[in-house]
Amino acid sequence: MDKKLSIVILNWNGRHYLEKFLPVLLQHIPNYAEVVIADNASTDDSREFLQEHYPTLQLIVNKRNEGFAQGYNEALKQVDAEYYCLLNSDIEVPDHWVEPIIEQMEADKTIAAVQPKILAYHDKTMFEYAGASGGFLDKYGYPFCRGRLFDSLEKDNGQYDTPMEVFWVTGAAMFVRSSVYHQLGGLDGDFFAHMEEIDFCWRMKDYGYKLYVNPKSVVYHIGGGTLPKNNSFKTFLNFRNNLTMLLKNLPEKRIGRTLRLRFVMDAAAAAMFLLKGNGKDFAAVFKAWRAFLKNYDDTRRKRNNTEHAAYSDTFQKPIVVEHYLKGKKYFDGKKLFK
What we know:
By secondary structure, the chain is α/β, with parallel strands linked by helices. The chain has helices spanning about 15-25, 45-55, 65-75, 100-105, 180-185, 195-205, 230-250, 250-275, 280-295, 295-300, 320-325, and strands at about 5-10, 35-40, 60, 80-85, 90, 110-120, 135, 145, 150, 150-155, 165, 175, 210-220, 330, 335. Strand 1 (about 5-10), helix 1 and strand 2 form a beta-alpha-beta unit. Helix 6 (about 195-205) runs parallel beside helix 7, helix 7 packs antiparallel against helix 8 (about 250-275) and helix 8 packs antiparallel against helix 9 (about 280-295).
């Protein structure tokens, strides 16, 4: 392989982020790494900016904007490296953010993917929503992190600075072995965006690979640059993709009961949206269920041939109950919540 590490940024109409963060990134990579830009059919002047200011960087141009998942799949077919780093364009990196992760993956070949600690760009004392210090999943498929439980974000006081095996690593800054990425088919393109990395991580765990957060590496993420938080399409994707992920990865005997309970929980979430005056988000929840059911048979055919043993690594307490009814806001590795 030509390179040990290719840091691949998937860009869509993000010239302002490239202009702001790309010079910093190029200053803070080791000599065994390269930066590749994959443009997802941008309609702004991103490509012209790159060609004028960074003509030596590899630029991959996707024909269509097929979202985060398929956009990366198409781009990574053209990238030859031992490791990939899928890096969002709205991330600032400091010096020596790469080396701790590559050293860890070199030392343990059973580790398939690692993420750094993700802090907020606008307040570097706080964890950032997309990944914080490593991701987990509860028994009903709700994701949470060390440092983030639903919308409750913690201040970083070094409480999660121990490298730890996790259930999922964020797609905002995912280091992954290229051999594993291609072996397992990469991200599921039908997700378009949101939760595709959790689905992929679940698949990696089912095949026996380990996933880690390494807080010796830190990056600073703006977040919400492409789809802001209060966007009903984002709500639709999150609900639909979460259900799709469950159908693909749950043990067979868990599917029916889990989906029935999730319908009740999702209906309650929709009611909360309506009570808050978010009619579009209310509708998005039921549109997500309709899309999920329409594609139910196709999704079932994607189930892998493993024993789906990774489910045993999910937390068995429902975090919706723990958070919203019991008022617990913070992750605790031993007790789950505090």
